[in-house]
């Protein structure tokens, strides 16, 4: 990787276009200094890894693999601890094992992790007890605390985002390649969990089957490397373009631009305007790109996005992450999938069953019903089955901690429980038990389709 003038030319073409949801940095000089410093930092991920993920996502687009993408709505600097990261990873590994074994499909594992620090918001301000302050926009921008000082955007936070991402990714790499993710550990990932929860018990039974299958293969003399380590990739929403372009580098092998802040970047529902800065930025980098598609997306929008982001029609380059809402998916998704398929493009279709199903409980907590989440995934599978296309994966907000943020699930959480462990900095996440429940149900859907 090299940094040179060309880097910043190619990675900066978005600058003359309107960019939604950018922080209102009060001190532009401080911002410039931070950008210059970030430009000198080493890459967090390597271009070759991004290429490898693009190949894996190509298999998803061709119908040969399933994408599991998940993690926090908003990562927080004070949650960069071994315990939080291990719990999240463990949950994703358990979900991956369930989907691979019960769904009989290769699973591409991608975290909303090591960079998910910036949030687009519905409103610029928030009012509590008559006091109005700027909204919290993620730890990369301002503080969660409801005080005037905390809510002022501070560009120094972009450097903290880089360092928090680096520390997280370092631990993730150690966990996934250093023995912890060895399939022989399928039971160990469940140890602290099994007795207390129905999904933990169900998982334990599946882990016993995996063990038997592995013992059988060992006895036959098969002991592949794939059982010892796990390929795990990082992703986040490419929202704050000053950060993302400062982390964009020319790959010395190919001369192409890569945003080395994460393996996969996605453009959110609020920033996917076709002629605005985020799509322009994404069009310039070689990383695999996701775009969130909400219920107002037209087939023409989807086709123009393909034109802008995947002109070569390369499977794996572009992933459409639909987030319609359980009540709209059966209505809105068919036309998009149908017209995109008819155009000859091979995108991966992924279901985000979270963002179209948020509501406010009487207690004031932002929450989601597990049943709505499940129903949106069901609708997603039904639509793809009807059209003969591939339901490529799920994109979920989850945590490995036993929080009470979404209602329902096998180990049911009620609206009155929400206050007990409501810890999210932004949207409500599935807890570990709800995440495992979902993995089992999705594996059944996959097998049945
Ligand atoms: O994570 C997604 C968005 O940032 C979030 O849903 C916006 O939430 P808000 O409507 O509270 O701003
Ligand atoms: C902001 C998010 O989603 P969307 O852009 O789909 O609203 C998110 O994934 O946290
Ligand atoms: Mn969210």
How big is the Rg? 21 Å
CATH topology: TIM Barrel
Percent strand equals 5-15%
The CATH class, by name, is Alpha Beta
Please mark out the parts with pLDDT under 50 across 5 or more consecutive residues, or reply none: 1-7
User: What is the helical fraction, as a range of percent?
Assistant: 25-40%
Q: Major sheet: order of its strands?
A: 1-2-5-8-9-10-11-14
Main beta-sheet strand count, sense and barrel state: 8 strands, parallel, barrel
Number of domains: 1
Strand element count: 14
The termini sit apart by 43 Å
The H-level CATH homologous superfamily, spelled out, is Aldolase class I
Bound small-molecule species: erythose-4-phosphate, phosphoenolpyruvate, manganese (II) ion
By DSSP (H or I, 4+ residues per run), the number of helices equals 12
CATH architecture term: Alpha-Beta Barrel
What integer is the average pLDDT?
95
3D structure, described in words:
- The protein has one domain: TIM Barrel.
- The model is unreliable at 1-7 (pLDDT under 50).
- 39% of the residues lie in helices and 14% in strands.
- Helix 6 crosses helix 12, helix 10 (329-342) runs parallel beside helix 11 and helix 11 packs parallel to helix 12 (432-448).
- It is an alpha/beta fold and 449 residues long.
- Bound molecules: erythose-4-phosphate, phosphoenolpyruvate and manganese (II) ion.
Brief summary of the model shown:
With 449 residues, the chain is α/β, with parallel strands linked by helices.
């Amino acid at each position: 990787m090299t940094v040179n003038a060309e880097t910043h030319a190619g990675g900066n073409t978005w600058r003359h276009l309107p960019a939604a949801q950018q922080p209102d940095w009060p001190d532009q000089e401080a911002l410039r200094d931070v950008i210059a410093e970030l430009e000198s930092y080493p890459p967090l991920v390597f271009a070759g890894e991004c290429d490898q993920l693009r190949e894996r996502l190509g298999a998803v687009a061709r119908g040969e693999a399933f994408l599991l993408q998940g993690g926090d709505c908003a990562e927080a600097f004070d949650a960069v601890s071994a315990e939080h990261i291990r719990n999240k990873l463990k949950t994703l590994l358990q979900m991956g094992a369930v989907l691979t074994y019960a769904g009989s499909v290769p699973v591409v594992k991608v975290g909303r992790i090591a960079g998910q620090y910036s949030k687009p918001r519905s409103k610029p301000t928030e009012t509590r007890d008559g006091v109005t302050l700027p909204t919290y926009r993620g730890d990369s921008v301002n503080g969660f605390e409801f005080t005037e000082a905390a809510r002022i955007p501070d560009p120094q936070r972009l450097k903290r985002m880089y360092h928090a991402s680096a520390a997280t990714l370092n631990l993730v790499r150690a966990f996934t390649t250093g023995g912890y993710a060895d399939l022989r550990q399928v039971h160990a990932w469940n140890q602290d969990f099994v007795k207390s929860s129905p999904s933990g018990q169900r998982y334990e039974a599946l882990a016993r089957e995996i063990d038997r299958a592995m013992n059988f293969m060992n006895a036959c003399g098969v002991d592949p490397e794939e059982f010892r380590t796990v390929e795990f990739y990082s992703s986040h929403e490419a929202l704050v373009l000053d950060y993302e372009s400062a982390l964009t580098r020319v790959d010395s092998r190919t001369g192409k631009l890569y945003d080395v802040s994460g393996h996969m970047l996605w453009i959110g529902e609020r920033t996917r305007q076709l002629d605005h800065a985020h799509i322009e930025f994404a069009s310039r980098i070689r990383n695999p790109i996701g775009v969130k598609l909400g219920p107002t997306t037209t087939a023409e929008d989807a086709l123009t996005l393909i034109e802008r982001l995947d002109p070569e029609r390369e499977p794996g380059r572009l992933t459409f992450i639909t987030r319609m809402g359980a009540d709209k998916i059966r209505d809105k998704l068919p036309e998009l999938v149908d017209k995109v398929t008819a155009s000859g493009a091979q995108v991966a279709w992924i279901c985000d069953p979270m963002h179209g199903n948020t509501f406010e409980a009487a207690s004031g907590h932002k929450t989601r019903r597990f049943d709505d989440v499940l129903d949106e995934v069901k609708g997603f599978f039904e639509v793809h089955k009807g059209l003969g296309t591939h339901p490529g994966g799920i994109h979920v907000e989850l945590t490995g901690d036993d929080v009470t943020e979404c209602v329902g699930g096998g180990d049911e959480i009620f609206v009155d429980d929400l206050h007990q462990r409501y810890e999210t900095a932004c949207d409500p996440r599935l807890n570990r038990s709800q995440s495992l429940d979902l993995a089992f149900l999705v594996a059944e859907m996959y097998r049945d389709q």
